[in-house]
């Protein structure tokens, strides 16, 4: 056979340890990953597996191999507005974000930012993401073209916002026509997927929210991606505009936007009713701890989410989020949980950053677990990336090393990133 194999310490968490227990953790201290045409065809202990593949060249990788990270909520056009000072959500959008997003009317600008953004994901070990572009159709083309050339698995869709400011709004007919054109244009290409993307309840008219629900119903393969219950001023504005709705989630529900293929970012302030309804609908929540801290939105309530058995993934939410690193974001998720007296185990955090996010994106059969038949997207983590990490992880057990990587690690701890079995990023020594 033709193919290649990588020898390394392997770690993955394909199922939520909350539900599956410690069995969810799969670890080969000296493992072998055999890959053909970008797909994992064998995985196990090196000593068992190597004799079965005598002709296959084996490369030894310098670190702990985990599935490529999957960022379940991120805005590529906000890359250049990270670290914008001084405001909570609504004022931050007006002052810093909307002006920056207007520039994406220019396809060349969108191309340049998309290229930088995807390279930055790879530098951080992230191989898949659910991405907000802007209202402009060409901002989606720019991202998808750049993802296609890097063979990355990316899901995105034109932002719908007919109540947006001048230069950053669409209309009911243009939003519908451009969304349909993009779905048609990109269907089945590379590893790309489409998400109907109303920005949030406040940015769309009732008619556009209803139309987004209709679009979703007409295209059962696409996702729905939006924001939910992030900030108290936002929630008050939603309650003011929709006085008949039970809560923020109910607004989306009334327009047919709460489905098993819906991904809601944040969900920081959820009523018990909304939490149960999310569970019953099968929708998922992308937890964004870095962003929640940066915008003063408060901490995600893991205890409540777990009582409702919510489906969860993890997102950086760049540019309210302040790091592209899903390691760092995992460490912040731990701290957010602890602030509410909940605990987030490092293996569960790894699950959220990989297979959990994959499940939200409905790509868990393809990526997220380094399981047989899955695409060989993975990151090589360097426990000795900095003197402090090296000191803290020296002769430490797996849980200690993983937690140290989450608390102390970032892009420096990514030695290499592989996409479909090929090296897509290699740190210079
Ligand atoms: N709600 C509506 N738009 C946005 C956005 O761009 N970022 C965040 N964090 N929340 C939003
Ligand atoms: Zn966001």
From TrEMBL:
* One Gene Ontology molecular-function label: guanine deaminase activity
UniProt record similarity statement: Belongs to the metallo-dependent hydrolases superfamily. ATZ/TRZ family.
Q: Show the Gene3D superfamilies listed in the entry.
A: Metal-dependent hydrolases, Urease, subunit C, domain 1
State whether keyword Hydrolase applies. Answer: yes
Entry GO terms, CC: cytosol
Ordered alphabetically, the record's keywords are: Hydrolase, Metal-binding, Zinc
Its cofactor is:
Zn(2+)
> Looking at the keywords, is Metal-binding present?
yes
Describe the task this protein carries out.
Catalyzes the hydrolytic deamination of guanine, producing xanthine and ammonia.
* Domain Amidohydrolase-related intervals: 64-422
Write down what this protein is called: Guanine deaminase
Task: State which Enzyme Commission number(s) the record gives.
Answer: 3.5.4.3
Query: Which source organism?
Result: Novosphingobium barchaimii LL02
Q: Which domain of life is it from?
A: Bacteria
Biological pathway: Purine metabolism; guanine degradation; xanthine from guanine: step 1/1
Q: Which InterPro entries match?
A: Amidohydro-rel, Guanine_deaminase, Metal-dep_hydrolase_composite, Metal_Hydrolase, Metallo-dep_hydrolases
The record's annotation in NCBIfam families points to: guan_deamin, PRK09228.1
Give me the comment on cofactor binding: Binds 1 zinc ion per subunit.
- SUPFAM superfamilies noted in UniProt: Composite domain of metallo-dependent hydrolases, Metallo-dependent hydrolases
Provide the reaction this enzyme catalyses. guanine + H2O + H(+) = xanthine + NH4(+)
Question: Enzyme group, top EC level?
Answer: hydrolase
The record's listing under PANTHER family reads: GUANINE DEAMINASE (PTHR11271:SF6)
A biological process (GO) of this protein is: guanine catabolic process
């Amino acid at each position: 056979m033709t193919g290649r194999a990588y020898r390394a310490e392997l770690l993955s968490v394909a199922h939520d340890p909350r539900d599956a227990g410690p069995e969810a953790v799969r670890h080969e201290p000296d493992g072998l990953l055999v890959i053909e045409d970008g797909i994992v065809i064998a995985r196990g202990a090196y000593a068992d597996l190597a004799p079965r593949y005598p002709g296959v060249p084996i490369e030894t990788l310098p670190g702990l191999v985990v599935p490529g990270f999957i960022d379940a909520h991120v805005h590529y056009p906000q890359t250049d507005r990270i670290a914008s000072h001084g405001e909570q959500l609504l004022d931050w959008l007006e002052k810093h974000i909307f002006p920056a997003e207007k520039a994406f009317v220019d396809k060349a600008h969108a191309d340049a930012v998309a290229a930088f953004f995807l390279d930055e994901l790879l530098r951080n070990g992230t191989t898949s993401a659910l991405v907000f572009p802007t209202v402009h159709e060409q901002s989606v083309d720019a991202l998808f073209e750049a993802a296609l050339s890097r063979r990355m698995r990316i899901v995105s869709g034109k932002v719908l916002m007919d109540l947006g400011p001048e230069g950053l709004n669409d209309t009911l007919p243009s939003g519908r026509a451009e969304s349909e054109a993009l779905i048609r244009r990109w269907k089945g290409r590379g590893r790309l997927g489409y998400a109907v993307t109303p920005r949030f309840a406040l940015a769309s008219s009732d008619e556009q929210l209803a139309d987004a629900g209709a679009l979703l119903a007409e295209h059962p393969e696409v996702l729905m991606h939006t924001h939910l219950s992030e900030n108290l001023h936002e929630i008050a504005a939603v309650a003011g505009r929709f006085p008949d709705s039970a809560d923020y989630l109910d607004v989306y529900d009334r327009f047919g936007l709460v489905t098993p293929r819906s991904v809601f970012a944040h969900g920081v302030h959820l009523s018990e009713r909304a939490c149960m309804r999310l569970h019953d609908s099968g929708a998922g929540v992308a937890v964004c701890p870095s962003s929640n801290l940066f915008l003063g939105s408060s901490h995600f309530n893991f205890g409540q989410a777990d009582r409702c058995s919510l489906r969860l993934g993890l997102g950086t939410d760049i540019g309210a989020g302040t790091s592209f690193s899903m390691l760092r974001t995992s460490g912040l998720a731990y701290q957010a949980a602890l602030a509410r007296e909940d605990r987030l185990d490092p293996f569960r955090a790894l699950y959220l950053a990989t297979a959990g996010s994959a499940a939200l994106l409905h790509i868990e059969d393809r990526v997220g677990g380094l399981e047989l038949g899955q695409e060989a997207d993975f990151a090589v983590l360097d426990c000795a990336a900095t003197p402090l990490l090296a000191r803290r992880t020296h002769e430490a057990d797996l849980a200690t090393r993983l937690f140290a990587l989450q608390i102390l690690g970032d892009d420096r701890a990514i030695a290499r990133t592989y996409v479909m079995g090929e090296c897509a990023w290699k740190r210079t020594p």
